[in-house]
Amino acid sequence: MINNDRPSNQNTSSTLGVGGYSHTKATLALAKASFRSIMRSPSAVVFTLAFPLIFILVFGFLGGGGTKLDIALAPGSDIQNPVVVALEKTGLVRLTKNDDQKNIDSKLEKGNYDAVIKVEKNPNGVPAYFTNVTYTSASLDKGNILKSILNEISYNLNSQNLKPTVTEIRASTVTGRLYRTIDFILPGQLGFSLLSTGVFGTAFVFFSLRQNLVIKRFFATPVRRSSIVIGEGIARIGFALLGALFIILIGHFFFHFTLIHGAITVANMLILSTLGVLVFMGFGFVVSGIAKSESTIPPISNIITLPQFLLSGTFFSIDAFPTWLQPISRALPLTYLNDAMRKVAFEGAGLWDVKQQIFIMLIWGIGIYAVAVKTFKWE
Amino acid sequence: MEKRNAIISVKDLVKNYDDFKAVQGLTFDVYENEIFGLLGPNGAGKTTTLEIIETLRQKTSGEVIVDGYSVDKDPSSIKRIIGVQLQAAGYYPNLNLVELLELFSGLYGVNVNPMDMLAKVNLQDKAKAKYKALSGGQKQRFSIATTLINSPKIIFLDEPTTGLDPQARRNLWDLISEIRKQGTTVVITTHYMDEAEQLCDRVAFVERGQIIALDTPDQLIDNLIASGFERKKEVKKANLEDVFINLTGQEWRE
């Protein structure tokens, strides 16, 4: 069994020179592997693409634009009267003409109808019509809108043949960009998509690479630790940007999402996305470090993502929140990403115009990476 | 025995974990182009010793030289000339074998054809399979393929045959012998003494972090017999494993 007769191999000089190893090549090999892996991971695709797209679809179809008042025309009303005709012309009301009284009453109580209108011809001649309006306390704000609409209609109808004695209101409207629901919703969903892929994706990948000793095997090769982190980062950012581009294009071509300067706006949004996902990846590194087991990753990640999902103006403008809640909203990084995205996309702002938002995100980035360096574990 | 060239030289190696002394002053050499076995019960310090030589773990004290490089001063040079198979390593999720080998050739900075590597371990048919979908023996062979990517001078195999059926085990022995024939030094740990006897040129027995015997398997057996040891039962010309192989055939099924 002993190979004493074997001539000992004297050639021990290394065939791989010290300069022959390329860290760039190693980093790119890791980025490629990671990107392939992400594209095949169902959860990454669901969180980054499917979730935001579902919300965009829902809100895209829901938000036709503007407020509409639901008004029932009481049975027995005169349909061909000028009041109803003028009301329909405003385009602000959805008029239901053939509902029965019982139904109308019940829907009025629930606020499904904002008001009921009954128009009667005056048998005495002047005025020609009586308009009876019943509002509902279930929908007072819309009732008030209707009140002013009716006031204006009746004023116009009554003064058709009169010269105004005190004043005549000459109203005009500046032609503005139509701010659709999608213009608010899409940047929020985009921000959320970046948040999930940054936090969940990074946390899961690094945790499982560590747990399954994949990283340990990497350490037996000449690869540097920085190459592992950078390679993973490149793949994650690449995937997030692909998702972002997809969401923006779907929004633009199917739901008329406003991109003021076209391709430049898209490019600016992608730059903001890169910054966003970089910051959010920092949270992911922290989670991967502090999670004790795979099952603790989702709850910890949710603690980070859910408040931002709800409070960072993803669905509602922060201005709509109670004042005590607003400072919390204004402390979260996603708030600033969403804000910057909306300014860039709808108002046509350049990156310099949103420098304040970018600055705050950078501060978050520095802070979270400082924590990540302390908590991150390789083994 | 003629003096041979030591490619690995371990002197007074000590490794302490907090209050546990895993390795307590190991000294041994591994010669070029031999198959060297580290044997011993679980927890004896075999894996710790291997991982220190592989530069994956810091030692407490002692000296380890691998092909002229010190593990303290030049770990990255060592990493380039060794191939490492870990006891329980996983591989990047969602990738098939070819893609994993591409990744490793990037990590080692070499250009290899993944199919050639798979051919070396007879896994060409599994090129598009995921690592998780492989059988135990296939997993070990794939692990060995990843250790060969950088044409290493030394490969380290930590319990490569644990959990394999007799056919897969024998197949792996052939593969390891073949690798050695190409000029590679092999350091292996195992719990199977028949395996060590068949495969290893020299073995070291490690117990509680210390080497208690180091020699060729033949010599160690002769020493024992010379001390008056006798097996309780007369050894037959075949054992139950021979029966198993005889009945179920040599070729592998997976």
TrEMBL record, chain A:
InterPro entries: ABC-2_transporter (IPR052902), ABC2_TM (IPR013525), ABC2_TM_bact-type (IPR047817), ABC_2_transport (IPR000412). The keyword Transmembrane helix applies. The chain crosses the membrane at residues 44-63, 190-209, 234-255, 267-291, 303-325, 358-376. It comes from the Bacteria. Keywords: Cell membrane, Membrane, Transmembrane, Transmembrane helix, Transport. One of its GO terms (molecular function) is ABC-type transporter activity. It is found in: Cell membrane; Membrane. It is a multi-pass membrane protein. The keyword Lyase does not apply. One of its GO terms (cellular component) is ATP-binding cassette (ABC) transporter complex. PANTHER family: DOXORUBICIN RESISTANCE ABC TRANSPORTER PERMEASE PROTEIN DRRC-RELATED. This is Transport permease protein. It comes from Pedobacter cryotolerans.
UniProtKB/TrEMBL annotation, chain B:
Belongs to the ABC transporter superfamily. Keywords: ATP-binding, Cell membrane, Membrane, Nodulation, Nucleotide-binding, Translocase, Transport. GO terms for cellular component: plasma membrane. Pfam families: ABC_tran. One of its GO terms (molecular function) is ATP hydrolysis activity. Residues 8-233 form the ABC transporter domain. It comes from Pedobacter cryotolerans. The keyword Nucleus does not apply. Gene3D superfamilies: P-loop containing nucleotide triphosphate hydrolases. It is found in: Cell membrane. This is ABC transporter ATP-binding protein. Coiled coil: none annotated. It comes from the Bacteria.
